[in-house]
Amino acid sequence: MDLGLDGRVYVVTGGTKGLGRATADALVADGARVVVSSRSQESVDAALAALGDNARGLAADNADPATAERVAQLALDTWGRLDGALISVGGPPGTNPPNATDAQWREAFESVMLGAIRVARTIVSHLEDGGAVGLVLSTSVKQPVAGIEISSGLRPGLAMWAKHLADEIGPRGIRVFSLLPGRILTDRITSLTPDAEARARMSENIPLRRMGDPEEFGRVGAFLLSPAASYVTGVVVPVDGGALRSL
Ligand SMILES: NC(=O)c1ccc[n+]([C@@H]2O[C@H](COP(=O)([O-])OP(=O)(O)OC[C@H]3O[C@@H](n4cnc5c(N)ncnc54)[C@H](OP(=O)(O)O)[C@@H]3O)[C@@H](O)[C@H]2O)c1
Predict the structure, then answer these.
(1) What does the DSSP assignment read for 190-229?
(2) Looking at the domain assignment, is residue 245 inside a domain?
(3) Which of 104, 133, 211, 226 has the fewest CB atoms inside 10 Å of its own CB, making it the most exposed?
(4) Which pTM value belongs to this model?
(5) What percent of the chain stands above pLDDT 70?
C-alpha cells in the first residue's frame, strides 16, 4: 500500500527519542520530511545525524509558549509546506495518588497538557485539507496506569479535547487522533522499570506477552498521519499488545 507520504512535511515534537523518534523514522522511511524537536540540542543533533537529509530539528521545550510557532516555521521556511504533526513529550513523574505535589502537577500541565494543546492548535492553523495531527497519550486515557497518577489525571482530558477538536477542524478536511501506547520499550520504560525481570513480569499481563518495539508504534503513527488514513479522525487508537481491558 502506498501511504501517500512522499514529499509531505510533518513536525514531531519529542521526536528525538522513543515513540516520537520511531514515528519520525517511519515517516522518513516512506518519503516524508520531518522537523524533530526536543529539549536537548545533543539529542536533536543525534537524531538529525540518523534521520538524514529529509530532517531538520531544533531544541525546544513543549512547555515553552514559543515552541509551537518555532517548529511550524522551521518546516515552512525549509520546505514551504506543512502537512501535520505528531505531538509527543516526556512523561510525567512516577507517583501514585495522592502523592504528586502541586509543583509536579503544574509542571506536567505546562508540558504534557497545555504544551500539546498549544502545539496542536498552532499546527492546525497552518494546515489545509488533508492535514492531520496526532497526540501521543497513554492507555491511562481509559484505565489507570499504576505509578503514573498525573498521566491518569491529564490524559483523559486531552483525549476528549482532541475529540472536540475533530468536530471543529473536520469541515476543513483536517484530522486529529490520539494514540494510546501501552508498554513500548523506550528509554522511558527502562528508566521507570530498570529491572529486566520486573519488565518481564509486567509483560505477563499483556495478551501478546511482550512489550512493544518502538518501530511497531512508529508505523501506526505514520499510517494515521498519512493520506492513507484519510477517513480516520476523532479516534483513540491503542498500541498496547491487547493490554487494555475495555473496548
Ligand atoms: N513508552 C511507553 O510505553 C509509553 C506508554 C504510555 C505513555 N507513553 C507516553 O508517551 C510519551 C513518549 O514516551 P517515550 O517512551 O517515547 O519517552 P522517551 O523515550 O523518554 O522520549 C521522550 C522524548 O521527548 C523529549 N522530551 C521530553 N520532555 C520534553 C519536553 N518538555 N518538550 C519537548 N520534548 C521533550 C525527549 O527528549 P529531551 O530529553 O531532549 O527533551 C525525548 O526525545 C510520554 O509522554 C509518555 O508518557 C509512553
Answers:
(1) HHHS--HHHHHHHHTTSTTSSPBPHHHHHHHHHHHHSGGG
(2) no
(3) 104
(4) 0.98
(5) 100
